[in-house]
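Amino Acid Chain and Its Fold in Token Form
===========================================
Structure side: the spatial fold of the chain, written down as a series of whole-number tokens.
Position: the record begins directly beneath this header, with no further notes in between.
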Amino acid sequence: MIAIAQLPLDLGHRPALDRDAFLVTDGNAAAVGWIDRWPAWPMPALVLEGPPGAGKTHLASVWQVRADAALIDGPALDAAAVPRLLDAGRSLVVERADRAAEKPLLHLYNGFAERRLSLLLTADRAPARWGTALPDLSSRLRALPVAPILPPDDRLIHAVLIKLFADRQLIVADDVVDFLTARMERSFEAARRLVAGIDATALAAHRRVTVPLARDVLRSLYPDEG
């Protein structure tokens, strides 16, 4: 049977948020390196960029603890929040920074740079693709280092499937995970849907999770695959 490893990814279950639990692969090694490098960042801020569910929130949580930083969601960043965040005198994680209002984000960046506090901005896209209208903000964002998390490779998808099955307390043999890894869409959201579908099907039919059952669910989700 497969040895279960805790993987700190945004998978809809309680993750382990310590740095040692993070599965480092070629797709996220650069981002992990940037987080480990703090406080020796060349700029006041760093952008952590990658697709939904890639592990941005986990890495941001690791850095938040390390830097004793506060946290705010980008859409909640408004003019009233900026003075409060500056007065706190702490570094800050801005999740979904690409969805923050531009003027408050500019004032926040300028204030943190003046105070030599660090900002970690997470986003699904690099700043060059945010469509920023304010020239001052656009120039500052484009000058920042970007730590990318690439779409998952086979090794990471394989590990994520193990994690998702383990979180649901499903006993799954190696051949099932290998079968799914070779055929499924390469995304974390697809892994969530697939494992949820397998769990529901196995429960409803009172069946063990086997390759035939996995094949049936895979075909129902992706008729052209499996």
About this structure: Residues 50 and 124 are 5 Å apart (CA to CA). The chain is about 45% helix and 10% strand. The radius of gyration is 20 Å. Residues 1-20 have pLDDT under 50 and may be disordered.
